Write the structure tokens for this entry.
Amino acid sequence: MDPEPSRPTLLERLSSLLLREPEDREQLLQLLRNAHERNLMDADALSIIEGALAVSEMQVRDIMVPRAQMDVISVAEPPEKLVDFVLETAHSRFPAFGENKDDVIGILLAKDLLRYFAGKEFDLRDSLRPAVFIPESKRLNVLLREFRASHNHMAIVVDEYGGVAGLVTIEDVLEQIVGDIEDEYDFDEAADNIVLDNAGHYRVKAATEIADFNTAFGTNFSDEDYDTVGGLVIHQLGRLPKRNEVVVADGLRLQVLRADSRRVHTLLVDPQRSLALAQDKT
């Protein structure tokens, strides 16, 4: 009796599926989606491949933080006046300008301020790292390759006239491939969705369900048109918001702290309404 033939491995099945030689990118994506439907790859793997293919067609202008929303510092400011701004924005890198935002002369790493507060010799200009300037039209896959080769994490985007149009970070590029990346500004995944910060404001994950948000802040937002507080903000604006945009609804001020071209991640909520409600109950 002939032995029973062995079943093809996962790699062999996937290879067989892909050997159909797709004629264009759309056919390739369809093959990959079919592979996912047949359980040959999981949803995360499919999402990453789709993101990687999309990045090769996107330009810096598609994901950059616009000039108006850049958090920058002036080299004319004394270090002691910078600390509140650094703590408030909670970034690790800041473009530093001279006369105006078009005069970016370097990048300040927030950790370099530690020398000043440790009582050591500190000169703001001397502490700046070189700034990298790139055009708005640069492809994201090319930029990512350059980031990796140069070990830079931030680039200043300039327009055709040489003026500053915005900035982009390596995290912005990677998030187009793998989705949201948590950093020092984000919540711990295991923490609550609503966290009170040192300034007396609430940092709220955009994925917080409307029912939970209503319970925390005493609001009465409906969940018929959206399920999360991020959906609420998008509904109010009628589009995906940009970082630092503000929505005022039902007596609350909701500021977008983190958002990308796909979704909202984090909000800063003014607690005045919730505090007033709490006082009314006492």
Notes: The two ends are 85 Å apart (CA to CA). Residues 187-191, 273-282 have pLDDT under 50 and may be disordered. The first helix runs from residue 10 to 18. The longest strand covers residues 252-259.
